[in-house]
Amino acid sequence: MNAETDASAGPWARRARSELSPETLDQLDAWWRTANYLSVGQIYLLDNPLLRTPLTRDHIKPRLLGHWGTTPGLNFVYAHLNRAIRERGLNTIYIAGPGHGGPGMVANAYLDGTYTEIYNTIDRTEDGLRRLFRQFSFPGGIPSHAAPETPGSIHEGGELGYSLSHAYGAAFDNPGLLVAAVVGDGEAETGPLATAWHSNKFLDPAQDGVVLPILHLNGYKIANPTVLARIPEEELFELMRGYGYTPYLVSGGFDGEDPRAVHERMAATLDDILDRIADIKAAAADGTLDGRPAWPMLILRTPKGWTCPKEIDGHPAENNWRAHQVPLPDARDTEAHTHLLQEWLESYRPDELFGDDGAPVPLATALAPDGERRMSANPVANGGLLRKDLRLPDFRDYAVEVPSPGGSDSEATKVLGEWLRDVIRDNPHNFRIFGPDETASNRLSAVFEATDKQWNAEFWPIDSDNHLARAGRVLEVLSEHQCQGWLEGYLLTGRHGIINSYEAFVHIVDSMFNQHAKWLKTSRRIPWRVPIASLNYLLSSHVWRQDHNGASHQDPGFIDHVVNKKADVVRVYLPFDANTLLSTYDHCLRSVDYVNVVVAGKQLAPNWLTMDQAVEHCTRGIGLFDWAGTEVEGEEPDVVLAAAGDIPTLEVLAAASILRERVPSLRVRVVNVVDLMRLQSEDVHPHGLSDREYDAIFTTDKPVIFAYHGYPWLIHRLTYHRAGHDNLHVRGYKEEGTTTTPFDMVMLNDLDRYHLVIDVLDRVPGLGAREGAFRQEMQDARQRARAYTRERGEDIPEVAEWSWSGEKGAVRSDDTGGDNA
Amino acid sequence: MNAETDASAGPWARRARSELSPETLDQLDAWWRTANYLSVGQIYLLDNPLLRTPLTRDHIKPRLLGHWGTTPGLNFVYAHLNRAIRERGLNTIYIAGPGHGGPGMVANAYLDGTYTEIYNTIDRTEDGLRRLFRQFSFPGGIPSHAAPETPGSIHEGGELGYSLSHAYGAAFDNPGLLVAAVVGDGEAETGPLATAWHSNKFLDPAQDGVVLPILHLNGYKIANPTVLARIPEEELFELMRGYGYTPYLVSGGFDGEDPRAVHERMAATLDDILDRIADIKAAAADGTLDGRPAWPMLILRTPKGWTCPKEIDGHPAENNWRAHQVPLPDARDTEAHTHLLQEWLESYRPDELFGDDGAPVPLATALAPDGERRMSANPVANGGLLRKDLRLPDFRDYAVEVPSPGGSDSEATKVLGEWLRDVIRDNPHNFRIFGPDETASNRLSAVFEATDKQWNAEFWPIDSDNHLARAGRVLEVLSEHQCQGWLEGYLLTGRHGIINSYEAFVHIVDSMFNQHAKWLKTSRRIPWRVPIASLNYLLSSHVWRQDHNGASHQDPGFIDHVVNKKADVVRVYLPFDANTLLSTYDHCLRSVDYVNVVVAGKQLAPNWLTMDQAVEHCTRGIGLFDWAGTEVEGEEPDVVLAAAGDIPTLEVLAAASILRERVPSLRVRVVNVVDLMRLQSEDVHPHGLSDREYDAIFTTDKPVIFAYHGYPWLIHRLTYHRAGHDNLHVRGYKEEGTTTTPFDMVMLNDLDRYHLVIDVLDRVPGLGAREGAFRQEMQDARQRARAYTRERGEDIPEVAEWSWSGEKGAVRSDDTGGDNA
């Protein structure tokens, strides 16, 4: 090392500049060649990992899987980052954005020793190499992506588009961390990636870490050139400057250029970049930074599949889309190709890189940083190691008074906001709230008593900039993709957080949820992965209160989407008032390795349970509202009225109240479900009720009228094995809705109280015929309510017009309506 | 009009430049003031639409809904486009990207006369105005977005992010069309919008139309400033130049600037832009265009809520996020606010704008173009009017030979590709294929015999640019959002197309599908909306053949997502071989107003039906494979083996074959479902079987073992009302999978032939006990198969190892395995 680090300034210190020493250049090149050799070996070889004998068909895997194209570039960056980490003492993680970067990331982790520490049979022997190669993309082995199995990875690169969002999520609240994020030029075409560049308007240079985006232009996707590789370089520079970065370019390896020359340019450019970063961090630290800095980013242009055969069967391979996957697909099938593979492997001069024992020689591993400075071993990338439990204020202290069922009104999410405010206060460095410009709309504004919205674009000296600040616990950008990606990155590096969204538009991140759920499922099966905090959704502005925004805002299907994933990672809760929401969310913020979906209302609505009752109810997840039913002890009910969700609960209680007054002899049981997974069988979901418990609640033979928040068939799908299923009748959202009033919404979908009463009359044997006049009265009440709301554009003002009352807990109307947010 | 149009050059002609005449300026300002007045009226007024008497509480809507913030900007652009259309004879449609732009778009359609032509009670009288105002965001009325109800709209603006993609989709193959796309600065933060700017690399200046993006910077979202409004102007210019555009700026209306000055700048700038467009189009027409042009785009910076009260209750309103929705929420509640609303409305000087009869005066409507040149009346925006049936080659001519069931192998999508090639050949201007870089991977490469991939970034003179051309029928970009958005825009303007995608990653557009399905559902109920071509998905590279790519690529849940939407717009097909795929797709390309989801395999796999059989089977959508079963005429079967999907069909047929040989006395019925919606009840879905038909196929009391392509519970959700449901046992994908072999995938999920046989043995009463040894043999076969595949990394090479054969249609193994794409 020929430059001195100013140790007193820490890893961000600027360094005295000098030429790259020949020794370091040798080390860079040796690391890179070794990583490339190991990558090719993984893709092709079953045996003979060090080419101790001439390569034959039997040494080659029968199915050749994997992606060579991106790998030499990933390895190149890895080697150079290692040098910088060693010289500057950087604390760095590496995000491999391009798809199928697995072989490279595994090769580098093997080279720096981490891989063997974790998987001890993959050791530094010839047999270890054989195992390393064989397991790749092999049944029972490891995937072709930088998956949970890959040390140092927080990003899979299976579905593309989220590398930069993950990188920024990792950088928040990690002021000493450098996140190197390699963005593939294919990936760069995705929408989520295209907006993720703007994350720099949200990063605080003082209290957050640094993201170094490395746009890897290797020119091709699966079968096409990439857009960003096919625009003039100056246009690409303008794009990056327009995104707010200072672009640096390293281009090389074309037309047979000696890689050593490219190493020299890369090392010099990386030093320039890191010095520039050091300047920014220093200015941020001493308060002299003037506004948002133009952080450096690197454009690395190298041939696709760099160092593979230039030509195969007369077609170009290197620097062509043909190098995207397996450039020699017939390596096993023809002698010529087997020979070509041998030549390709030998081009890395493995005899210089591995000793007789099969271990990489010291030159090949010289650039490995020490211990946890190795990017593969950095605990940040196994975030559970760093996760600290949140200091949670006692949610019971935030309870709302409920003198009687329905005896007070609250905006549930607003009450939750008060608790979240104090969660923020007590956890100033490891808890964040993410949302697509809806945190206030979702009524969480109390949090702004404790924090601000983090923002690093321009500030204007006007009141609209209230609660905007360079550092804050809330991050808002109008991109669900960004919010989700940031949160995932934040959680995967050991912190906690929630995302709040309108219920309908959370579908925008359906596929991101899929990938995170799959990551969690796999991580849970990997012993060295330590549990991370759960990903918590707070979905408000839900389907029943989007009457004012119309059909485009009405969709409760995210729950359906979520429950398709493995039962051991997904949880769905439907708290129906302020106290049940508090209790639910306290539980969620304590949990690990789950995705918790919580749907809750934000409008003023009745409270039904005291905090003690709420805790008991939420602990069970399902239970009877005996105060609302008309059961007689020791007798089975005539009918069960069940609800899940705040509006269904309101309507079921209203229906129960009507029945109590008008058909007092009817034995009605009222059931409420907060934890939706309780409905599933216990052998399907860990929260599932046993059949005995289920039958005790729902009976095996009585009609069950179930009012559900979402699509009604989901309840059938969860319960089809239950004994009483044939008697189950579910009401829910059936895709009817427009711009109208809240009560019209429930009527359009037959979920309203009157319809529920009619359902009971029609399903309890003989009752409908006996109560014909009453049934007609309910029909008329529906029509009157509908006419009222349609003529006046108002919600139903007082329930007294269609009055009812009961001895216990009189039910009042929800006359608060929707609002306009 | 003070400038002459060169009529011979058509609408794209450059115009002699001159000052805006005072007369035209008056017309612009009058149109704009009238549109603003009509917009405010819609948001607030129930009655007294022309302020004939002082405004009182009773004139104001009880619930104030809608979004003022974006509206004056939309109206401003509309007025100026009208001038340009009239002066140049442009053929233009208007896309309102910002959310909740409904009142403005409706106001303009009313002003140009279209609204009254379509909705004749909303006429040009005071009563018509009253109705116009009242219906907005009112029960039974119209939504707050530019919804299907809005004349001239092909874009709702409920969920944000797709305006530019829709615009480019509309422009493809419409060489004479100018699509003016207003992009909100909130919307611009979304991922899909951020990548949609790059659509210019795919537009052909000669054969496609022109998109003019108008980035409307009004500074605020719901509760936050927008990113693009808070970066330096030069940075924003660089971003737009980096995206490949020539940015123009119009900024005005701040600090009380006279709008007339802004009109003058806007008119001059728009003329500059249109002249620049004319130059590009002329160069493209005469072949002198050098590469991709830097198309103009406009940055329009105006105050949010421009012209509303400057201040309300001491808080700024205009130019503030407070103007986002309803700036005077208490207009009905306090006299002061009622008065303020009156002042606001009067600020537009309605007495100058409306006559005594309530009709707008000639000055106010002078800029309305004629007839179909009105943007609200342009048939392009009611695309069904222009839709022409495709000239479809007879799909039977593309049939593969099937000498016996399983007697030949095909790659189903490859065969489809041959037919699609000729669909393209016969429909060179109104059919396109969109895909995220997967068209070749999905085996549709035959289409490149007839066309190219349209591309307008750089071409390199190398072989990797094969099939790239400035004009072509295939559009590929690595963004499912872009593909879907382009296709939607293309269909909504009267053309035909398909999107092909990997099955797992189509979840990326879940939410876009939602919005399109909702659009279709609503459009079908609107008499003047003419049916458009169906949106056709071709999902290949499906869950069972993503063994090589691993868990991140395995997800069959899009079907679950789709079937939550209205039955009258969604169709799901699972053709299981080449001939059934051909028959299915011919049906899809003939249909209108649906979303057709077709899941099909791309790997070499057995063909089961001749074309005649396939047509008959697909016409029914469900049917018996009597050649595979062992039924005896006149007797009920002992068990039903049902399949939906290609891999389930293969495994079911293999299981049936094993049973035929090993338990010849067992009466097995084999059922196959191509049209998944046949399973639903006829009262739920128009394709649903009657209970009688369903029972005739599945029996009411015999065990049914159903092997399904996707998540097994979906089959339960579709059939829970059927009589035989309790005897239904479904196997499918239960989220188990990794990087392995194809056969290991089915084993991991218990869908393999051996497990299906065991399921039969266990479910036919007494059979399992009787056939204990055979059952054990099947268990052993599973273990052997698993061990084989895991040890060798190969799929099972020959079924003969676990041999079976039948008299009719011997079933061979699927030994083709997955491939590497």
TrEMBL record, chains A, B:
It comes from the Bacteria. Residues 784-821 are annotated as: Disordered. Residues 784-795 have a biased composition (Basic and acidic residues). Keywords: Lyase, Thiamine pyrophosphate. Gene3D superfamilies: 3.40.50.920, 3.40.50.970. Pfam families: XFP (PF03894), XFP_C (PF09363), XFP_N (PF09364). Residues 602-804 form the Xylulose 5-phosphate/Fructose 6-phosphate phosphoketolase C-terminal domain. GO terms for biological process: carbohydrate metabolic process. This is Probable phosphoketolase.
